[in-house]
Structure formats: structure tokens, C-alpha cells
Amino acid sequence: MLKSINPANDEVLATLDRHSDADVEAALARAAKTQREWRNTAVSERSALLKRIAEVLREGKSEYARTITLEMGKPIGEALAEVEKCAWNCDYYAETAEAFLAPEHIKTPASESYVSYEPLGIVLAIMPWNYPFWQVFRCLAPIIAGGNGYVLKHASNVPQCARAVEDIARRAGAPDGLVTTLLIGAGAVEGLIDDDRISAVTLTGSTEVGSLVAAQAGRRIKKQVLELGGSDPFIVLADADLDKAAATALKARFHNAGQSCISPKRFIVENAVADRFVDAMAAGIDKLVVGDPIDPEVGMGPMARTGLRGDLHEIVEATAAAGGKLVRGGKPTAGAGAFYQATLIDGVAAGMASFDKETFGPVASVVRASGPEQAIELANRTEFGLGGALWTSDIDRAKRLVRDLEVGAVFINAMVASDPRMPFGGIKQSGYGRELGPQGIREFTNVKTNWIA
Asked: Which CATH architecture group holds 2-228+430-452?
């Protein structure tokens, strides 16, 4: 059984049966049959389906946002924006798929030579709970636009969101089996990866799980895209617009209760402005409205599970014990739910827990740097390489500095965010491969050379 539990009050929302082995077999057989037919449909027909999916998402936006908020705890306003972003992504690929998948002619001695982008088959998507719609539709749209099938194994604490995904595709008129949700446990994943009907795997999740899935898929020589953890730096130089930087830092760190791989975790600030930055962050935290996320006035809800809260608190305690100064917060909130105080720690340094580990929750760590070069060095002193932000008024200098940032995405004077028009992904322990943009749709295609003598 899978239980859907409201993390704001610990109430059980629903109990759902897991799919049996027979259910999984029937679903995969149906998905394989459908994908063989879908691969031969015109790209224009696939794009039309994406347009209809976008329409269904917008028509049911309030219903879907409420499900997101109740199951994993993000404020209802953020959930509404998440559903809208999913629709935008579907629209984007509906409008661009034909151009991205068009044969690319290349001049050679052949009478005709070109590269074609053809479907791989069925892609297994292993998705997380923190953006239970966006993470799914972010990869779903380009995967089915590319002529592939989509099988979803969602996080076990968001089963109603998982079930909604398949229902949305059905409402939009998708062929039966093109988008399939399997309500199964983590132990069943390896069997799916081993199944010959699964051609590739995409995963968004922790580095530990990503490493395990990569090993399983690697044994079968199956393509993977891995979007894993992050400990993103948010660098503030002395000449930055400090008010804007602090306001953006506050939003970026405490959005979704800090439960985002690309939210900044380490705020690396030049000494000359560090005191002012810490004061501005503390003042912002004092104004943050924390409570029941279904209330539209609430700015931060609970963490998704009490176990995650416990892991985060261990990092906070270890950092404080090593010399980090607790400026705000630092404790679980008493009472029902998985609430944790919005926390600000000053004086964090390499070797402390909140510098070295991914703080997946509402904790901001301020690291002081002597200058721009040391700030970049500190930013790179991590096993992760997902995203990073740099704040300064000198754009030319910023462009030079960010060349040395070891990340998959860099934002100057802005918060790191995913955008359907730009490729998204990381390096180092943050994974490999790209979602979104033209790269995202081509990741799960056979890039085929065609040579005609």
C-alpha cells in the first residue's frame, strides 16, 4: 500500500494499492505496443497532443495545485505556478519539436548525407517529490514529442500526483499506454531497467540513488540522463546591488521550503558587504509567513517528510557545533507536521557540514570571502556542479569569472531557474545529460547518420 500523507498536519489523505507484478507486465506490454505505433506518427500529430495536454493542465490547474500542496507541502501559490510552467513546457515543445527533430543535412562527397533524430523506445522516468508535476512534465514533453513512450515511477509519497499524470494524458487523448504510471516501490526499479522493453532511463533525485540507477542501467548499456543533487553557490561581490541580491537570495533559498536541487545553499559573500547581507537576510526571514500551505497568505510550508527534517537538523547542529553562528532558526517547529524554522547560519567554512553537504531544506549558509577569486575557489570546493549565481555591477568581469565556475548553469544577477528554452543539467556529482531546449528532445533519440552514395 502507498499512503499519501499531508506533511502540514500528518493526516492520511489517501491509501492506494501498489501495482502487482501482473499489473506491471500488462502495462509494459501495452506501452510497448503503443510506442511502436506512436514512433510512426507525424511530429505534427505529437505536437497536437502536447497542445491538448497543456490545455488539460490549465483547465485543471486549481485541482492539480491543491493535490501538490496537500501531498508534499509547498504553498498553493507555488503549486499553481508549477502547473502553469508544465503547460508552458508542453506548448514550447509543441511549437519547436518539428524544427528540433528535422533532418540535418551535411555537405559530404555523398549525393545526400544527413543526420536524423529517431525514437529510442520507452523511457523509464524515475521522478522526485519536490516538484511532483514539473519534474515529470519537464521530461515527458520532449520524450513523447520525440516519438518515445513514457513510463513513470514517481516518488512514493506523492501517489496521487503520480496517478494524475496518466489521467491528464488520457484526458488529452493520448493513445492508451503512451504515458503510463506504475505505483511500485523502489525495489521494483531494477527489474524495470532490466526489461528489454525499456530503452532508456531518466532520473531526477539524489546523487546516491542516481549512482545506483546508473550502475543498473550501465550493466544493460542503456542511455541515461541524471539530474542529481546540488550545493549551488550564490556569490555576492562588494559592488553588487545588495538589496536586490538579498531579496533574491531569500526567495531562492526558501522557495518550496528550500527543497530544490537548484536553490542556492552556500551564500558566498565578500567581507566588505557580508554584515549588511546577513542583516538583510535576517530581516527577510523575520517577515516570512510560515504555516498551512493551503493558505494563500503563507510563504513557506512544511518539509515533505519528518525524516527529511531530521536529516537536515543533524546538519544544522553539526555546523553550529563546528563554529557556525545561528542567526535565525535552527530548530524543528513543535507540533504536527514536518515544519522546520527558516534558518540562517553565518561564518560557515569549508569542512563544516552545511558547506560540504547538500542542505535540502530551509537553511541558508553564509560563507565569507576575501575577494572575487577566493569566492570562485570556494564555490568550486564541492562535489556538486549543478548551478550557480554571481552578483556584481561589473558584467564584463562577471563574464570572465563565471568561466571558472564548475556548474551546468550560471546566472548573473538572477536566481538559477530552469527554462524550457535553455538546456538544464549539471556536471560532477550533479549528473550528466541535459533536459529542456533542443538538447533535451535529442537526448532520447537515435542520432542516426544517413549516407546516400
From this structure: 3-Layer(aba) Sandwich (3.40)
Domain with CATH 3.40.605.10 in the chain: 2-228+430-452
The count of other CB atoms within 10 Å of the CB of residue 143 is: 28
Q: What DSSP designation does 40 have?
A: T
Q: Which CATH class is domain 232-420?
A: alpha beta
Instruction: Give the per-residue SS3 of 122-155.
Output: EEEEECCCCCCCHHHHHHHHHHHHCCCEEEEECC
Catalytically active residues, by annotation: 227, 261
Q: Residue 177 region, left (φ>0) first, then alpha (ψ -120 to 50), else beta?
A: left
pLDDT digits (tens, 9 = 90+) for 163-209: 999 999 999 999 999 999 999 999 999 999 999 999 999 999 999 99
Burial (0-12, 13-18, 19+ Cβ within 10 Å), 215? exposed
Against a cut of 0.85, is the pTM above it? yes
- pLDDT per residue over 58-104, tens digit each? 999 999 999 999 999 999 999 999 999 999 999 999 999 999 999 99
